[in-house]
Design brief:
160 residues, alpha+beta, seven-stranded mixed β-sheet, 29% helix, 39% strand, globular
């Protein structure tokens, strides 16, 4: 588990292709100092990743309610590697990074329809806050079609 570097981009793109150049945009956020792009590796195979957002929660209500929290978002574990503790390991690494920067609170936003993620975070000690933000974003599928999504995300937090 480590922060991605620019030299990882070709391997990430080859082994874990994502539409919309997601890996490059995550690296750009990291280069700007706003985030750390964590990648979990099994040898030279990327198996999971997440963004550690140093500027705090993305949603305006969450940011207002928990301005000092570090938010982990875009947690992804490749389907064939799920159920093996990869997601938990990514979260643990993010928490360790936060403690290393003397940050004391972690946050995750969970969509109301993502019960599996909510169970994972609660099992890891995150608690529901009742703080909900509506998040809108676009994503591109493998065929190049742009999709617009609207999510209602509840913030879960944990002291680290």
């Amino acid at each position: 588990m480590r922060a991605a570097i620019a030299a990882d981009l070709p391997l990430l793109d080859e082994r874990w292709p994502t539409p919309g150049d997601v890996h490059a945009s995550h690296l750009a956020e990291q280069s700007a100092g706003r985030a750390t792009f964590l990648v979990a590796w099994d040898g030279d195979e990327p198996v999971g990743s997440a963004m550690v957002q140093w500027d705090g929660p993305v949603g305006p209500r969450a940011r207002e309610s928990y301005p000092e929290a570090v938010e982990v978002n875009h947690l992804q574990v490749r389907e064939e590697h799920r159920g093996r503790g990869v997601g938990s390991a990514v979260i643990a690494a993010a928490e360790e990074l936060a403690r290393g920067r003397d940050r004391i609170q972690m946050a995750v936003g969970v969509a109301h329809d993502n019960d599996g993620a909510a169970r994972l975070y609660e099992r890891l000690g995150y608690r529901r806050t009742g703080t909900v933000d509506t998040v809108e974003y676009d994503w591109v599928d493998d065929a190049g079609t742009v999709h617009h999504e609207v999510e209602h995300d509840e913030l879960l937090v944990r002291d680290v």
